[in-house]
Amino acid sequence: MIDQEASNNSPLIHRRYVFGLLLRLGVNFAGGVGILFAILYFALSRPLPGNYEGVFLALRNLSPFLRPILAVSVLVYALLACGSTAALCVYILHKVAGPLYRMELVMDQYRSGASTRTVSFRNDDQIQPLAKAFNLWIGTLRHDRHRWLATMKDAERHCLQDEATCRAEMEAALRKVAKDLARYR
Amino acid sequence: MKNLNLKPPRPRIRYVSPRFQGPAVLAFAAITAIGGAIFWKLVDGEFKRVFLHAAIRGHYTFDSAYDIVRDLLAWHLAGLFAGVFLAGSVLVLLLVAATRHSIGIAIDSLRASAEGDLSTPTRMGFIDNFYRFGDKIDAVRSDTLASILKLRSEATGLAASGIPAEEFRLRWDELKQEIRRIAP
Fold first, then answer.
1. CA distance B37 to B174
2. Which residues of chain A have a CB within 8 Å of the CB of B105?
3. Which among A89, A90, A102, B154 is most buried, taking Cβ atoms within 10 Å?
């Protein structure tokens, strides 16, 4: 009982997962910005000439090249940061998307009439209560199914007696099962 | 000798849900790209202005062009990081909130199913993947309810049928088989 309560109260998405995602995202973006800085540093750190005229010309001549330098550096930053963020997102969101995918497969299996096993996710997967809720529902259905079959089997035992008693007991069992089934709406 | 019984390890597929992971990846990529574009636009204008100003003023005490724009570049890079990280964080929090909300609804729906409510629809929210998942849960519940209603009607009908014993027994066995098909 305590276990069930504890499992019901377990969070859908753990804080550690969210903080981990934010931290990795931060490191990822910082890496991208670092690369952008490195490119711009190497592009702009060429020494200037020592005299006034040289500095003037060097700075004036830098302007036409500034836009391509910035364009290339921003493009490299965008490609690297987008690529690594995409990979990070796919990897991290797999811990939510994976269980959903698994649940979808189980539900397809259930609908096809094949035997459905208890759903369990990997330890580090999120949305664990979803599997527990599904298992609870299937467990309740199975429990009810066993009870209905037990009621019918119990009525069949009376068939060792005379036919009238057997029929009366079977009809009573059917009414009981029908009443039990009525709780589903 | 090669051991044919050893199977190569199955590759772990990470990209399982294009409807969920795909848009999230695109959203993060868009944030990064937009941040880069804004940075480019701002820095391009500022650098041109600063270099022109430095050329006219004759800042030949600086060793390189980088020394002239060092502070400006640092501020813009810090701004780029802060902007992209904050926007990314907001997106993460929105995704987490949407997931919590939608999966919470699915869990409530499954718990209600365990208590017998198989007909109230699961409205799981606006993210396509969750919406589809809600539809799938509803389809499973709907199938189960249809089977249960059929069983109930069969049981009620059989109890009140008054048919001959042989036929009764036949339909009784069929009903048992049908019940066995619930949650196999």
1. 69
2. none
3. A89
